[in-house]
Amino acid sequence: MAALAPVFRKAYWALILGVSFYIAALTALANPWLQRHPEQFGFAKNQITPFNFTTPDHETIYAWHVMPLGLYAKHESEILQQPSGLADDITQTTAFRLLRDDPDSRLIINSDLPQNAGTVAQGWRTDSYRSLSDGSSSNIHILAIDYRGFGLSTGFPTEEGLITDGVAAVDWALQVAKVPSDRIVILGQSLGTAVTSAVAEHYAMKGINFAGVVLVAGFTSLAELLPGYSIAGYLPVLSPLKSTPAILELFSSKLVDKWPSASRIANFVRMSKRVRLFILHAKDDYEIPWTQSEGLFAAAANATTEGGMDLELLRKMKARTTVDTGDGTFISTWKAGENKIIRQEVVAYGHHSRVLTYATVSLAALKAFGLDEGGALPVSSLEVDAESDYNHLIL
Ligand SMILES: *[C@@H]1O[C@H](CO)[C@@H](O)[C@H](O)[C@H]1NC(C)=O
Ligand SMILES: *[C@@H]1O[C@H](CO)[C@@H](O)[C@H](O)[C@H]1NC(C)=O
Description:
With 395 residues, the protein is an alpha/beta fold. It has helices spanning 5-30, 32-35, 69-74, 76-80, 94-101, 125-133, 159-176, 191-205, 222-225, 245-253, 261-271, 291-302, 311-320, 359-368, 386-394, and strands spanning 48-54, 60-66, 106-110, 140-145, 184-189, 212-216, 275-282, 322-326, 329-336, 340-347.
Protein backbone atom coordinates (compact mmCIF):
# COMPACT_ATOMS: atom_id res chain seq x y z
CA MET A 1 0.00 0.00 0.00
CA ALA A 2 2.73 2.38 0.97
CA ALA A 3 4.32 1.93 -2.42
CA LEU A 4 1.08 2.78 -4.13
CA ALA A 5 0.39 5.98 -2.25
CA PRO A 6 2.60 8.31 -4.35
CA VAL A 7 1.10 6.84 -7.47
CA PHE A 8 -2.37 7.71 -6.29
CA ARG A 9 -1.26 11.15 -5.34
CA LYS A 10 0.10 11.76 -8.81
CA ALA A 11 -3.02 10.41 -10.42
CA TYR A 12 -4.98 12.76 -8.24
CA TRP A 13 -2.99 15.78 -9.38
CA ALA A 14 -3.32 14.73 -12.96
CA LEU A 15 -7.04 14.51 -12.56
CA ILE A 16 -7.42 17.79 -10.73
CA LEU A 17 -5.18 19.54 -13.22
CA GLY A 18 -7.10 18.06 -16.09
CA VAL A 19 -10.57 18.76 -14.81
CA SER A 20 -9.92 22.33 -13.76
CA PHE A 21 -8.12 23.02 -17.00
CA TYR A 22 -10.92 21.73 -19.09
CA ILE A 23 -13.66 23.52 -17.20
CA ALA A 24 -11.80 26.81 -17.40
CA ALA A 25 -11.00 26.40 -21.05
CA LEU A 26 -14.57 25.55 -21.99
CA THR A 27 -15.85 28.50 -20.01
CA ALA A 28 -13.32 30.68 -21.77
CA LEU A 29 -14.29 29.52 -25.20
CA ALA A 30 -17.92 30.01 -24.39
CA ASN A 31 -17.46 33.56 -23.20
CA PRO A 32 -15.37 35.62 -25.57
CA TRP A 33 -17.90 38.39 -25.06
CA LEU A 34 -16.64 38.91 -21.53
CA GLN A 35 -13.21 39.90 -22.64
CA ARG A 36 -14.55 42.57 -24.91
CA HIS A 37 -16.11 44.33 -21.92
CA PRO A 38 -13.46 44.88 -19.26
CA GLU A 39 -15.78 47.18 -17.26
CA GLN A 40 -17.71 44.03 -16.47
CA PHE A 41 -14.89 43.13 -14.09
CA GLY A 42 -14.94 46.40 -12.24
CA PHE A 43 -12.39 48.34 -14.24
CA ALA A 44 -12.92 51.99 -15.04
CA LYS A 45 -14.14 52.88 -18.51
CA ASN A 46 -11.22 52.56 -20.93
CA GLN A 47 -8.83 51.64 -18.12
CA ILE A 48 -8.12 48.61 -20.24
CA THR A 49 -7.19 48.81 -23.89
CA PRO A 50 -7.74 45.56 -25.80
CA PHE A 51 -5.49 45.23 -28.85
CA ASN A 52 -3.91 42.68 -31.19
CA PHE A 53 -0.33 41.96 -32.08
CA THR A 54 1.20 39.38 -34.39
CA THR A 55 3.78 36.73 -33.55
CA PRO A 56 6.74 35.95 -35.84
CA ASP A 57 4.87 32.82 -36.96
CA HIS A 58 1.82 34.92 -37.88
CA GLU A 59 -0.61 34.20 -35.08
CA THR A 60 -2.80 37.05 -33.92
CA ILE A 61 -2.59 37.49 -30.18
CA TYR A 62 -5.34 39.29 -28.32
CA ALA A 63 -4.00 41.38 -25.45
CA TRP A 64 -5.03 43.77 -22.74
CA HIS A 65 -3.11 46.81 -21.63
CA VAL A 66 -4.30 47.59 -18.09
CA MET A 67 -3.36 51.04 -16.90
CA PRO A 68 -2.81 51.82 -13.22
CA LEU A 69 -5.80 53.46 -11.60
CA GLY A 70 -3.79 56.27 -10.03
CA LEU A 71 -2.52 57.29 -13.43
CA TYR A 72 -5.98 56.88 -14.92
CA ALA A 73 -7.35 59.26 -12.29
CA LYS A 74 -4.89 61.94 -13.39
CA HIS A 75 -5.91 61.61 -17.04
CA GLU A 76 -9.52 60.57 -16.70
CA SER A 77 -11.25 63.10 -18.93
CA GLU A 78 -8.81 62.58 -21.78
CA ILE A 79 -9.12 58.80 -21.51
CA LEU A 80 -12.91 58.89 -21.38
CA GLN A 81 -13.00 60.72 -24.69
CA GLN A 82 -11.18 57.94 -26.47
CA PRO A 83 -12.98 55.22 -28.38
CA SER A 84 -13.64 52.01 -26.43
CA GLY A 85 -13.06 48.44 -27.48
CA LEU A 86 -10.33 46.87 -29.57
CA ALA A 87 -7.77 49.52 -30.51
CA ASP A 88 -6.89 49.55 -34.20
CA ASP A 89 -3.63 51.22 -33.31
CA ILE A 90 -2.80 51.08 -29.64
CA THR A 91 0.10 53.47 -30.07
CA GLN A 92 -2.48 56.25 -30.56
CA THR A 93 -4.04 55.80 -27.12
CA THR A 94 -3.30 58.01 -24.14
CA ALA A 95 -2.76 54.92 -21.99
CA PHE A 96 -0.07 53.65 -24.32
CA ARG A 97 1.63 57.04 -24.50
CA LEU A 98 1.73 57.20 -20.70
CA LEU A 99 3.29 53.75 -20.59
CA ARG A 100 5.89 54.53 -23.24
CA ASP A 101 6.82 58.10 -22.35
CA ASP A 102 6.88 58.05 -18.56
CA PRO A 103 10.43 57.23 -17.45
CA ASP A 104 8.99 55.85 -14.21
CA SER A 105 6.36 53.60 -15.72
CA ARG A 106 6.72 49.93 -15.00
CA LEU A 107 5.18 46.93 -16.65
CA ILE A 108 4.16 43.50 -15.44
CA ILE A 109 3.79 40.98 -18.22
CA ASN A 110 1.33 38.49 -16.94
CA SER A 111 1.41 35.00 -18.33
CA ASP A 112 -0.82 33.03 -16.09
CA LEU A 113 -2.31 30.52 -18.44
CA PRO A 114 -4.15 28.33 -19.46
CA GLN A 115 -4.80 25.51 -17.02
CA ASN A 116 -7.31 27.45 -15.04
CA ALA A 117 -6.92 30.77 -16.67
CA GLY A 118 -8.14 30.35 -20.21
CA THR A 119 -8.33 33.98 -21.22
CA VAL A 120 -7.21 37.41 -20.13
CA ALA A 121 -10.50 37.68 -18.28
CA GLN A 122 -10.65 34.28 -16.67
CA GLY A 123 -11.04 33.41 -13.00
CA TRP A 124 -8.95 35.44 -10.60
CA ARG A 125 -6.92 37.11 -13.29
CA THR A 126 -8.93 40.32 -13.48
CA ASP A 127 -8.83 40.66 -9.70
CA SER A 128 -5.11 40.13 -9.81
CA TYR A 129 -4.65 42.90 -12.39
CA ARG A 130 -6.41 45.25 -10.02
CA SER A 131 -4.46 44.23 -6.96
CA LEU A 132 -1.23 44.69 -8.89
CA SER A 133 -1.99 48.09 -10.34
CA ASP A 134 -4.52 49.84 -8.09
CA GLY A 135 -2.25 51.52 -5.56
CA SER A 136 -3.02 55.24 -5.67
CA SER A 137 0.58 56.13 -6.42
CA SER A 138 1.16 53.11 -8.62
CA ASN A 139 2.64 53.47 -12.06
CA ILE A 140 2.57 49.76 -12.69
CA HIS A 141 0.93 48.85 -15.99
CA ILE A 142 -0.04 45.32 -16.91
CA LEU A 143 0.12 43.49 -20.19
CA ALA A 144 -1.93 40.30 -20.34
CA ILE A 145 -2.45 38.12 -23.37
CA ASP A 146 -4.61 35.28 -24.57
CA TYR A 147 -2.17 32.63 -25.68
CA ARG A 148 -2.66 31.04 -29.07
CA GLY A 149 -5.69 28.78 -29.18
CA PHE A 150 -7.30 30.59 -26.25
CA GLY A 151 -9.83 33.36 -25.95
CA LEU A 152 -9.71 35.67 -28.95
CA SER A 153 -6.28 34.66 -30.21
CA THR A 154 -5.74 32.53 -33.27
CA GLY A 155 -3.81 29.29 -33.57
CA PHE A 156 -3.21 26.11 -31.73
CA PRO A 157 -1.36 25.73 -28.43
CA THR A 158 1.91 23.78 -28.21
CA GLU A 159 4.85 24.24 -25.86
CA GLU A 160 6.89 25.92 -28.58
CA GLY A 161 3.95 28.05 -29.67
CA LEU A 162 3.11 29.25 -26.17
CA ILE A 163 6.73 30.22 -25.57
CA THR A 164 6.74 32.07 -28.90
CA ASP A 165 3.72 34.02 -27.67
CA GLY A 166 5.37 34.81 -24.33
CA VAL A 167 8.48 36.04 -26.12
CA ALA A 168 6.38 38.05 -28.60
CA ALA A 169 4.62 39.78 -25.69
CA VAL A 170 7.96 40.79 -24.19
CA ASP A 171 9.22 41.92 -27.60
CA TRP A 172 6.12 44.05 -27.97
CA ALA A 173 6.90 45.66 -24.61
CA LEU A 174 10.56 46.23 -25.44
CA GLN A 175 10.22 47.35 -29.03
CA VAL A 176 6.77 48.88 -29.41
CA ALA A 177 6.09 50.20 -25.93
CA LYS A 178 9.83 50.86 -25.50
CA VAL A 179 9.84 49.90 -21.84
CA PRO A 180 13.40 48.89 -20.90
CA SER A 181 13.75 45.39 -19.47
CA ASP A 182 14.84 46.69 -16.08
CA ARG A 183 11.35 48.16 -15.70
CA ILE A 184 9.63 44.91 -16.68
CA VAL A 185 8.55 42.06 -14.41
CA ILE A 186 7.46 38.81 -15.98
CA LEU A 187 4.96 36.90 -13.92
CA GLY A 188 3.36 33.50 -14.37
CA GLN A 189 1.03 31.30 -12.40
CA SER A 190 0.46 27.55 -12.64
CA LEU A 191 1.20 26.40 -16.20
CA GLY A 192 2.08 30.03 -16.87
CA THR A 193 5.17 29.56 -14.67
CA ALA A 194 6.44 27.10 -17.27
CA VAL A 195 6.07 29.71 -20.02
CA THR A 196 7.60 32.39 -17.80
CA SER A 197 10.60 30.16 -17.00
CA ALA A 198 11.17 29.56 -20.70
CA VAL A 199 10.82 33.26 -21.51
CA ALA A 200 13.24 34.17 -18.72
CA GLU A 201 15.76 31.66 -20.08
CA HIS A 202 15.28 32.96 -23.63
CA TYR A 203 16.16 36.55 -22.67
CA ALA A 204 18.97 35.51 -20.33
CA MET A 205 20.62 33.87 -23.34
CA LYS A 206 20.41 37.23 -25.11
CA GLY A 207 21.91 39.03 -22.12
CA ILE A 208 18.64 40.77 -21.24
CA ASN A 209 17.80 41.05 -17.53
CA PHE A 210 14.34 41.84 -16.20
CA ALA A 211 13.52 43.74 -13.03
CA GLY A 212 12.15 40.46 -11.77
CA VAL A 213 10.72 37.07 -12.53
CA VAL A 214 7.76 35.92 -10.41
CA LEU A 215 6.60 32.30 -10.38
CA VAL A 216 3.34 31.65 -8.54
CA ALA A 217 2.21 28.06 -7.84
CA GLY A 218 4.75 26.58 -10.22
CA PHE A 219 6.14 23.12 -10.75
CA THR A 220 9.53 21.67 -11.65
CA SER A 221 8.51 19.95 -14.87
CA LEU A 222 5.40 18.40 -16.26
CA ALA A 223 7.06 15.03 -16.32
CA GLU A 224 7.67 15.28 -12.60
CA LEU A 225 4.14 16.39 -11.97
CA LEU A 226 2.57 13.59 -13.98
CA PRO A 227 5.23 10.93 -14.35
CA GLY A 228 4.47 7.82 -16.28
CA TYR A 229 0.93 8.81 -16.91
CA SER A 230 -0.80 8.54 -20.18
CA ILE A 231 -3.14 11.49 -20.20
CA ALA A 232 -5.20 9.57 -22.71
CA GLY A 233 -6.05 7.23 -19.87
CA TYR A 234 -8.15 9.99 -18.38
CA LEU A 235 -10.07 10.82 -21.46
CA PRO A 236 -13.13 8.77 -20.54
CA VAL A 237 -13.43 10.98 -17.48
CA LEU A 238 -12.86 14.06 -19.55
CA SER A 239 -14.86 13.01 -22.56
CA PRO A 240 -16.24 16.51 -23.24
CA LEU A 241 -12.66 17.36 -24.16
CA LYS A 242 -13.07 15.37 -27.30
CA SER A 243 -15.43 17.95 -28.69
CA THR A 244 -12.75 20.62 -28.43
CA PRO A 245 -9.81 19.50 -30.55
CA ALA A 246 -7.50 22.39 -29.66
CA ILE A 247 -7.79 21.65 -25.98
CA LEU A 248 -7.53 17.95 -26.50
CA GLU A 249 -4.36 18.54 -28.46
CA LEU A 250 -2.79 20.72 -25.79
CA PHE A 251 -3.82 18.29 -23.14
CA SER A 252 -2.47 15.19 -24.78
CA SER A 253 0.63 16.96 -26.00
CA LYS A 254 1.54 17.83 -22.45
CA LEU A 255 3.54 14.69 -21.99
CA VAL A 256 5.31 15.29 -25.27
CA ASP A 257 5.92 18.85 -24.22
CA LYS A 258 7.94 18.42 -21.07
CA TRP A 259 7.97 21.98 -19.72
CA PRO A 260 11.29 21.52 -17.85
CA SER A 261 10.96 24.62 -15.70
CA ALA A 262 13.52 23.69 -13.05
CA SER A 263 16.33 23.30 -15.56
CA ARG A 264 15.18 26.38 -17.48
CA ILE A 265 15.12 28.49 -14.37
CA ALA A 266 18.55 27.14 -13.40
CA ASN A 267 19.87 28.19 -16.82
CA PHE A 268 18.28 31.57 -16.37
CA VAL A 269 20.00 32.03 -13.00
CA ARG A 270 23.33 30.80 -14.32
CA MET A 271 23.34 33.00 -17.43
CA SER A 272 21.91 36.19 -15.96
CA LYS A 273 24.07 38.98 -14.60
CA ARG A 274 21.31 40.13 -12.34
CA VAL A 275 18.55 37.95 -10.89
CA ARG A 276 15.49 38.88 -8.85
CA LEU A 277 13.54 35.65 -8.74
CA PHE A 278 10.42 35.18 -6.63
CA ILE A 279 8.99 31.72 -6.07
CA LEU A 280 5.59 31.89 -4.37
CA HIS A 281 3.18 29.20 -3.35
CA ALA A 282 0.23 28.80 -1.00
CA LYS A 283 0.36 26.00 1.51
CA ASP A 284 -3.29 25.18 0.79
CA ASP A 285 -2.78 24.74 -2.95
CA TYR A 286 -4.45 21.40 -3.65
CA GLU A 287 -3.79 21.42 -7.38
CA ILE A 288 -0.03 21.80 -7.43
CA PRO A 289 1.50 21.12 -4.01
CA TRP A 290 3.76 23.81 -2.60
CA THR A 291 6.61 21.28 -2.39
CA GLN A 292 6.98 21.73 -6.16
CA SER A 293 8.25 25.22 -5.40
CA GLU A 294 10.93 23.67 -3.19
CA GLY A 295 12.28 21.96 -6.28
CA LEU A 296 12.26 25.21 -8.26
CA PHE A 297 14.05 27.00 -5.46
CA ALA A 298 16.67 24.26 -5.12
CA ALA A 299 17.38 24.30 -8.85
CA ALA A 300 17.67 28.10 -8.89
CA ALA A 301 19.79 28.35 -5.74
CA ASN A 302 22.04 25.52 -6.90
CA ALA A 303 22.72 27.45 -10.08
CA THR A 304 24.19 30.40 -8.18
CA THR A 305 27.39 28.55 -7.31
CA GLU A 306 29.93 27.19 -9.71
CA GLY A 307 29.38 23.47 -10.13
CA GLY A 308 26.43 23.40 -7.76
CA MET A 309 26.21 21.60 -4.43
CA ASP A 310 24.53 18.57 -2.99
CA LEU A 311 21.06 18.71 -1.54
CA GLU A 312 22.18 18.41 2.05
CA LEU A 313 24.46 21.42 1.88
CA LEU A 314 21.81 23.34 0.01
CA ARG A 315 19.25 22.58 2.70
CA LYS A 316 21.67 23.65 5.42
CA MET A 317 22.36 26.94 3.70
CA LYS A 318 18.70 27.50 2.99
CA ALA A 319 17.78 26.90 6.63
CA ARG A 320 20.17 29.67 7.66
CA THR A 321 18.43 32.18 5.41
CA THR A 322 14.86 31.17 6.18
CA VAL A 323 12.51 33.18 8.31
CA ASP A 324 9.76 31.13 9.91
CA THR A 325 6.51 33.08 9.54
CA GLY A 326 4.39 30.63 11.54
CA ASP A 327 1.98 27.83 10.70
CA GLY A 328 4.57 26.12 8.55
CA THR A 329 4.95 29.17 6.31
CA PHE A 330 8.31 30.79 5.64
CA ILE A 331 10.37 33.19 3.57
CA SER A 332 13.78 32.14 2.30
CA THR A 333 16.08 34.73 0.82
CA TRP A 334 19.04 33.32 -1.05
CA LYS A 335 21.69 35.81 -2.04
CA ALA A 336 24.69 35.22 -4.24
CA GLY A 337 26.60 38.46 -4.16
CA GLU A 338 24.58 41.64 -4.70
CA ASN A 339 23.35 40.58 -8.08
CA LYS A 340 21.47 37.36 -7.65
CA ILE A 341 18.64 37.16 -5.18
CA ILE A 342 16.12 34.34 -5.01
CA ARG A 343 13.23 34.65 -2.65
CA GLN A 344 10.86 31.83 -1.88
CA GLU A 345 7.70 32.53 0.04
CA VAL A 346 5.21 29.94 1.17
CA VAL A 347 2.04 31.57 2.46
CA ALA A 348 -0.75 29.94 4.43
CA TYR A 349 -3.69 30.83 2.19
CA GLY A 350 -4.57 31.50 -1.40
CA HIS A 351 -5.15 28.06 -2.89
CA HIS A 352 -3.94 27.63 -6.42
CA SER A 353 -5.22 30.73 -8.19
CA ARG A 354 -6.69 33.11 -5.69
CA VAL A 355 -3.20 33.70 -4.30
CA LEU A 356 -2.60 35.78 -7.43
CA THR A 357 -4.75 38.50 -5.88
CA TYR A 358 -2.95 38.36 -2.53
CA ALA A 359 -0.43 40.79 -1.12
CA THR A 360 2.45 38.37 -1.49
CA VAL A 361 2.35 38.64 -5.30
CA SER A 362 2.04 42.44 -5.33
CA LEU A 363 4.84 42.63 -2.79
CA ALA A 364 7.09 40.55 -5.00
CA ALA A 365 6.43 42.94 -7.89
CA LEU A 366 7.13 45.99 -5.71
CA LYS A 367 10.41 44.46 -4.53
CA ALA A 368 11.42 43.52 -8.05
CA PHE A 369 10.80 47.11 -9.14
CA GLY A 370 12.84 48.40 -6.22
CA LEU A 371 9.78 50.11 -4.74
CA ASP A 372 10.36 48.59 -1.31
CA GLU A 373 12.33 50.02 1.58
CA GLY A 374 15.52 51.70 0.48
CA GLY A 375 14.88 50.68 -3.10
CA ALA A 376 16.44 47.30 -2.46
CA LEU A 377 15.41 43.91 -1.26
CA PRO A 378 15.20 43.61 2.50
CA VAL A 379 18.39 42.61 4.18
CA SER A 380 17.29 40.63 7.17
CA SER A 381 19.83 39.82 9.80
CA LEU A 382 19.29 36.20 8.91
CA GLU A 383 20.24 36.71 5.34
CA VAL A 384 23.50 35.08 4.43
CA ASP A 385 25.46 35.46 1.26
CA ALA A 386 25.43 32.09 -0.48
CA GLU A 387 28.99 32.30 -1.73
CA SER A 388 30.65 33.06 1.58
CA ASP A 389 28.33 30.74 3.43
CA TYR A 390 29.14 27.99 0.99
CA ASN A 391 32.84 28.43 1.59
CA HIS A 392 32.28 28.58 5.32
CA LEU A 393 30.22 25.40 5.38
CA ILE A 394 32.45 23.28 3.19
CA LEU A 395 35.69 24.34 4.90
C1 LIG B 1 -7.82 41.18 -33.93
O1 LIG B 1 -7.97 39.79 -34.00
C2 LIG B 1 -9.30 39.33 -34.16
C3 LIG B 1 -9.27 37.83 -34.22
O2 LIG B 1 -8.60 37.29 -33.17
C4 LIG B 1 -9.90 39.89 -35.45
O3 LIG B 1 -11.25 39.54 -35.49
C5 LIG B 1 -9.74 41.37 -35.49
O4 LIG B 1 -10.11 41.84 -36.74
C6 LIG B 1 -8.31 41.79 -35.22
N1 LIG B 1 -8.25 43.23 -35.17
C7 LIG B 1 -7.22 43.92 -35.65
C8 LIG B 1 -7.34 45.40 -35.47
O5 LIG B 1 -6.26 43.42 -36.14
C1 LIG C 1 23.44 21.11 -8.31
O1 LIG C 1 24.09 21.15 -9.58
C2 LIG C 1 25.10 20.18 -9.72
C3 LIG C 1 25.80 20.42 -11.04
O2 LIG C 1 24.89 20.74 -12.04
C4 LIG C 1 24.49 18.79 -9.62
O3 LIG C 1 25.49 17.81 -9.75
C5 LIG C 1 23.80 18.67 -8.26
O4 LIG C 1 23.14 17.43 -8.17
C6 LIG C 1 22.79 19.78 -8.09
N1 LIG C 1 22.25 19.74 -6.75
C7 LIG C 1 20.95 19.80 -6.48
C8 LIG C 1 20.57 19.81 -5.06
O5 LIG C 1 20.11 19.87 -7.37
